[in-house]
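Worked example 3 (structure in, sequence out).
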């Protein structure tokens, strides 16, 4: 029988899983999507020199602090700085140098005046607007100082992280290995062939589950369809554990005569952490561990399997890579119809959206097209009998 847990309880259960990760070295530019396995400290100052953030004129602060259109400052133009070149010039009171955006500032520069607030006159320049000290300039080391932690351990490598690392010429980093998945679909009726007989259905879950995994940046090593044969299913689960880090199976997780998943996990000595999720759709869900590997048993219906994966996979990834589980982003819209919930479970109600509204989609968990059409979902609490038309609801986008 099921021992149903809420989503909050499930997250707590998964957060206690210990998963030893291996590491390897990779080129920084090839590390997108990996998690860094050690703190990385800076070795260079950024910027390495005082630089301008605008096109304009390097000035002394006292020369421009009181200027205005009615009382402009007139400064002697001493020259200009070329991009990509250092200058040995020193700025004196009453002088100005033209400096392009990103250019090296002459020694003694205290403010950069935007070109829009100036007017050149032969060898002089008029300044029409007052500026504050250090305005429109960035000082040496102001962005990154030497020996500060540039990227923390367990940080996910994004394009922005790659940019920060390359600013320090960090071309090789140590990262955690990415999880490898095996995906199994079970059921006598499931086939993957051109022509099917009445009573058979084409395999859906193998493709949706493995594709969903790939959208997260991970690989599926093995994909298989197993009929309701205890020994073959058991061998496939054990093979998955031997060759991958996470085994995801759909179907066979309920309590029917041919629902073998729970019994197989008991048979091989797996630690079953959860059997039953207080979510509609998605009640027949299993979470287990076996020899430092993770098992996720999904319901057989494609919609149920997909919706459970929406919640469970992020919990697993956050735990494995030691990430803080953050609330999912949402938009607030007005509900166009009543939504009923008499299940006693948390309801994940699929919706489509318009500019200001969310419209519930009517479905059963075996349906496919409605899942394809949906924008996202709203959550109805297990203790609520539903939501009313006109209420403001939080709409969460489906994760792929």
């Amino acid at each position: 029988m099921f021992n149903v847990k809420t989503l909050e309880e499930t997250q707590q259960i998964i957060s206690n899983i210990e998963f030893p990760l291996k590491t390897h070295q990779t080129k920084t530019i090839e590390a997108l999507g990996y998690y860094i396995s050690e703190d990385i400290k800076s070795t260079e100052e950024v910027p390495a020199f005082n630089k301008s953030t605008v096109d304009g004129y390097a000035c002394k602060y006292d020369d421009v602090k009181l200027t205005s259109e009615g009382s402009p400052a007139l400064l002697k133009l001493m020259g200009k700085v070329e991009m990509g070149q250092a200058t040995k010039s020193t700025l004196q009171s009453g002088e100005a140098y033209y400096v392009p955006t990103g250019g090296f500032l002459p020694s003694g520069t205290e403010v950069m005046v935007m070109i829009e607030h100036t007017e050149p006159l032969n060898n002089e320049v008029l300044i029409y607007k007052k500026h504050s000290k250090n305005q429109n300039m960035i000082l040496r080391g102001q962005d990154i100082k030497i020996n500060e932690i540039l990227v923390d351990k367990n940080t996910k490598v994004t394009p922005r992280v790659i940019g920060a690392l390359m600013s320090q010429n960090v071309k090789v980093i140590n990262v955690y290995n990415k999880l490898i998945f095996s995906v199994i679909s079970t059921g006598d009726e499931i086939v993957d062939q051109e022509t099917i007989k009445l009573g058979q259905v084409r395999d859906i879950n193998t493709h949706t589950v493995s594709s969903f995994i790939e959208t997260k940046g991970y690989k599926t090593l093995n994909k298989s369809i197993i009929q309701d044969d205890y020994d073959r299913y058991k061998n496939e689960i054990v093979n998955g554990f031997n060759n991958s880090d996470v085994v995801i199976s759909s179907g066979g997780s309920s309590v029917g005569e041919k629902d073998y998943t729970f019994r197989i996990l008991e048979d091989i000595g797996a630690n079953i952490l959860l059997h039953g999720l207080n979510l509609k759709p998605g009640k027949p869900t299993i979470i287990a561990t076996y020899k430092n590997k993770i098992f996720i048993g999904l319901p057989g219906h494609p919609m149920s399997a997909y919706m459970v994966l929406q919640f469970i996979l992020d919990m697993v990834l956050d735990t494995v890579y030691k990430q803080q589980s953050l609330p999912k982003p949402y938009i607030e819209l007005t509900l166009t119809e009543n939504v009923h919930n008499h299940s006693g479970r948390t309801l994940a109600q699929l919706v489509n959206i318009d500019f200001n509204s969310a419209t519930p989609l009517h479905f059963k968990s075996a349906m496919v097209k409605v899942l394809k059409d949906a924008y996202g979902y709203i959550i109805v609490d297990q203790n609520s009998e539903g939501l009313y038309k006109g209420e403001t609801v939080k709409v969460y986008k489906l994760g792929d």
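Notes: The helical segments are 7-15, 61-64, 159-167, 205-215, 230-243, 261-268, 302-320, 369-373. Residues 331-397 form a domain with the Beta-clip fold (CATH 2.40.340.10).
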